[in-house]
TrEMBL record:
PROSITE patterns recorded: NA_NEUROTRAN_SYMP_3
Species per Swiss-Prot/TrEMBL record: Pseudohalioglobus lutimaris
Protein name as catalogued: Sodium-dependent transporter
SUPFAM superfamilies, per the entry: SNF-like
Cellular component, GO annotation: membrane
Length: 450
């Protein structure tokens, strides 16, 4: 028998869960380096504008569809579609979304495992177990598969407890812990020599680049991907929202928390890079550009920490603890997408669905690790560069064009009876119809054309 559907019991719990889904590794390591490579504060300003002009409306499309159906993405798109081709296309979109979410988790679990390993390596160094620390930070199949499996077990354990006892409870714990850790790290790094150079790069705008097509497209992509859109994670979380809640307000709160953490991460990563540069660690390539994000996290920052003595060990542990939390809060939403579908469509119990699907994803991760050079980058490109924008496009089309306008209005009135008189209703319906799809297609075209 299928498990009963859960529901978030508090506004705080939902915002923490949804923001946790959005705030992942990309926000903390990707956004700051993108900003530094694209005009510093000019990129930051454009990103802030686009986050509310693209990411928020697209987020609202998923939240509204989810709460209206109180079901998974497949059922939600089926419910609002007329019979025939549009219904079949909606169901296909939902199914592809849960497959893509599972594939994203399959490579995400590998990277998250690395974060846990580096976190434990700092503890090993602290107690003098240098050989263990070296193994934990060395790339190898045994280490990679062990910590991938550990991360998947953590994710599965949370999801198996359901919405209230699992997702909501742990989001309420993990997100505040992540924020406190991030603030503490920022406060410490800013006291180090060289940090001011990173702040200048981050905060002093290069306005000549502010309107360049490359910067705008990069900021569009950062804004879209920062909210974990396109694969149904926000739709399934929306399906657990009470009908009493004001959806536009909740969506705005999630967007604000996500953006705030991404911006705050810039005050950590950019100064830390220039502290490393001050300490003799290379942060630029031979062409003068900043190094890539993966090299930053797993090479530059560990080299920086090694120059700081015992304080560096503590900072290293704290930093990778932060990254591990960010990964976990995102992974639980990714796993919930296929789990919710399996429970609702096939009548499977939650615990069985979680362990079976989690096991399949872990097996997929193992296959990727066994063929790392060929598959790792391919899976990332297929899911995040190509599939995610197209799925986000489809969600906007169904919310803007297929969803009956009167039914949509009634859904929004549930938590806000006067929504029709507000600015949201005057702008959002046509905006999600016309503007959001065009912007998402621009992101996809840029991906294709390079």
């Amino acid at each position: 028998m299928a498990s009963p559907r859960g529901e978030f019991t508090s506004r705080f719990g939902f915002v923490m869960a949804a923001a946790g889904s959005a705030v992942g590794l990309g926000n903390i390591w990707g956004f700051p380096t993108q900003a530094a490579s694209n005009g510093g504060a000019a990129f930051l300003l454009v990103y802030l504008a686009l986050a509310f002009s693209l990411a928020y409306p697209a987020l609202m499309a998923e939240l509204i569809l989810g709460r209206h159906a109180h079901a998974n993405a497949v059922n939600a798109l089926r419910l609002i579609s007329p019979a025939g081709l549009l219904r079949r296309l909606g169901v296909t979109t939902g199914v592809v979304g849960l497959i893509v979410a599972s594939l994203i988790l399959s490579f995400y679990a590998i990277v998250a495992g690395w974060m846990i390993a580096f976190c434990l390596a700092a503890l090993a160094s602290l107690v003098g177990m240098e050989s263990l620390a070296q193994w934990l930070t060395s790339f190898g199949f045994a280490r990679n598969v062990s910590f991938m499996l550990l991360f998947m077990v953590l994710t599965i354990s949370i999801i198996s407890e359901g919405v209230r006892a699992g997702i909501e409870r742990w989001s309420e714990r993990l997100m505040p812990a992540m924020l406190i850790t991030l603030v503490a790290l920022v406060g410490y790094v800013l006291t180090l020599d060289g940090a001011s150079d990173g702040l200048k790069v981050y905060l002093l705008p290069d306005f000549e680049r502010a309107l360049s097509p490359k910067l705008i497209i990069a900021a569009l992509g950062a804004a879209f991907f920062s909210l974990s859109l396109g694969v149904g994670t926000m739709l399934i979380y929306g399906s657990y929202i009470s009908d009493r809640e004001n959806l536009p307000l909740l969506g705005g709160m999630v967007t604000l928390v996500d953006i705030s953490i991404a911006v705050l991460a810039g005050f950590l990563v950019l100064p830390a890079m220039y502290v490393a540069h001050h300490n003799g660690v290379q942060i630029f390539t031979e062409t003068g550009t900043l190094i890539s994000e993966d090299t930053l996290i797993f090479t530059v920052l560990p080299e920086l920490f090694s120059t700081m003595g015992i304080a560096g060990v503590v900072v290293s542990f704290t930093f990778f603890f932060l990254m591990s939390i960010a990964a976990l809060t995102s992974s639980i939403s990714m796993l919930e997408v296929p789990v919710a579908y399996t429970i609702e469509e096939h009548g499977v119990s939650r615990k069985k669905a979680v362990w079976v699907i989690g096991g399949i994803i872990a097996a997929t991760s193992t296959v990727i690790l066994l063929n790392f050079a060929e598959l790792f980058g391919l899976v990332i490109a297929f899911t995040t560069r190509y599939s995610q924008p197209l799925l986000g496009f489809m969600f906007c089309i169904y919310a803007g064009w297929i969803f009956n306008r009167n039914t949509l209005l009634q859904e929004l009135r549930k938590g806000n009876p006067d929504v029709e008189q507000g600015l949201f209703w005057k702008i959002w319906p046509w905006y999600v119809r016309l503007v959001c799809p065009l912007i998402i297609l621009a992101i996809f075209a840029q991906t294709l054309l390079g």
